[in-house]
């Protein structure tokens, strides 16, 4: 239950006087909000107060690779207690790696020797969670990592309980994991569509339901939703991916209104919408106008955004100025801009993507 102190009572038939009074107050506050936003845009990060994440438990889903791995390492450097989740054949109900312990070999695993088999099955260059833990360990940080298939609701709830028991309350939840198949609608098989929905959006419901109540209890928390520019503009060969990323926007915005409407202003929510990132997720794609973003820079920008308690983080920022055009311009003009100038669909035709990891 969200409970909390609800803002006001449901609107009754308002008098003209009430509407005028509320509108005037809104206009006055808007001047303040615009000036505040301009001010903070001009102040460099080094000079502005940023939330410290030291000692906070930060859970990163999809922390085994790409942006998630960068986030995990960078958050550990800031003194956060980092927990990463990722998929592996070892089985979602089995916690393959519990909190890493310093030992003569580095990390201690509790996988009964199935690590090698899992790594072979993954067809990835190496076992991804292991790589994240080792990278952090080499810098002197311990990261707790759990094998979880986010497409499996019960596994997500079970892993959430394990994290609470073994590590403690999660302060910052970063729903980062994502998957893409990159096929046109008629070539997408039904199970691929279902997997995309389960990983890219449904898992957000399970993780937030698992961790939000403790955030409310302790009056501290931050929920980060990783969407995509493909969740702001429909993308070729992404009927499933784009749709789930549009859903992340609705999820974040609705959750934000629920938190604020119930007076939980101390719980922050950030939506991150990056353009293509050079992680291999969209391997083969060659965007025409802008180069792909680098995962290190995306992770830095995300962490800064979290530390500033920003509600929206679109990368690169220039994209936010293009978005209103899609509502303002005639549809034919938008399509012409998309395929003639930006060559968006043509570049997605080169999509190769990454091999998929089998879930537990
Ligand atoms: N790469 C891009 O161009 C791009 C652009 C915009 C947004 N994004 C989004 O950013 C986020 C991170 O993307 P990335 O580029 O780092 O991708 P990535 O493929 O490098 O990493 C995603 C991670 O999620 C994990 N994962 C996938 N399915 C899982 C499951 N069922 N259970 C648990 N873990 C699972 C993968 O194993 C992987 O480690 C994703 O949400 C993605 O949709 C990516």
Automatic annotation (TrEMBL):
Pfam families: adh_short. CDD domains: 17beta-HSDXI-like_SDR_c. The chain crosses the membrane at residues 23-43. Keywords: Membrane, Transmembrane, Transmembrane helix. GO terms for molecular function: oxidoreductase activity, acting on the CH-OH group of donors, NAD or NADP as acceptor. The keyword Repeat does not apply. InterPro entries: NAD(P)-bd_dom_sf (IPR036291), SDR_fam (IPR002347). GO terms for cellular component: lipid droplet. Belongs to the short-chain dehydrogenases/reductases (SDR) family. This is Short-chain dehydrogenase/reductase family 16C member 6. It comes from Eumeta variegata (Bagworm moth).
């Amino acid at each position: 239950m969200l409970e909390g102190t609800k803002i006001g009572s449901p609107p009754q038939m308002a008098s003209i006087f009430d509407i005028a009074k509320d509108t005037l107050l809104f206009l006055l506050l808007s001047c303040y909000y615009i000036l505040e936003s301009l001010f903070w845009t001009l102040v460099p990060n080094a000079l502005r107060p940023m939330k410290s994440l030291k000692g906070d438990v930060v859970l990163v889903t999809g922390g085994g690779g790409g942006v998630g791995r960068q986030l995990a390492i960078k958050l550990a450097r800031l003194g956060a207690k980092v927990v990463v989740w990722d998929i592996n054949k070892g089985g979602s109900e089995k916690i393959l790696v519990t909190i890493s312990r310093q030992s003569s070999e580095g990390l201690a695993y509790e996988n009964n020797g199935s690590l090698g088999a899992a790594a072979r099955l993954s067809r990835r260059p190496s076992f991804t969670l292991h790589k994240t833990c080792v990278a952090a360990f080499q810098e002197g940080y311990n990261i707790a990592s759990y094998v979880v298939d986010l497409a499996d609701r019960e596994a997500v709830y079970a892993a959430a309980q394990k994290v609470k028991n073994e590590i403690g309350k999660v302060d910052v939840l970063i729903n980062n994991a994502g998957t893409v198949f990159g096929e046109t609608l008629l070539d997408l098989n039904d199970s691929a569509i279902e997997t995309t929905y389960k990983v890219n959006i449904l898992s957000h419901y399970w993780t937030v339901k698992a961790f939000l109540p403790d955030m409310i209890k302790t009056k501290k928390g931050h929920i980060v939703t990783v969407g995509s520019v493909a969740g702001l503009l429909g993308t070729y060969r992404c009927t499933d991916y784009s749709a789930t990323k549009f859903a992340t926007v609705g999820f974040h915005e609705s959750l934000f209104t629920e938190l604020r409407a119930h007076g939980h202003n101390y719980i922050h929510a950030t939506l991150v919408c990056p353009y293509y990132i050079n992680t291999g997720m969209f391997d083969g794609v060659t965007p025409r106008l802008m180069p792909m973003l680098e995962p290190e820079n995306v992770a830095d920008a995300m962490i800064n955004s979290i530390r500033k308690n920003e509600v929206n983080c679109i990368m690169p920022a220039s994209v936010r100025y293009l978005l209103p055009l899609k509502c303002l311009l005639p549809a034919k003009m938008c399509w012409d801009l998309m395929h003639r100038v930006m060559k968006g669909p043509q570049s997605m035709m080169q999509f190769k993507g990454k091999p998929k990891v089998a879930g537990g």
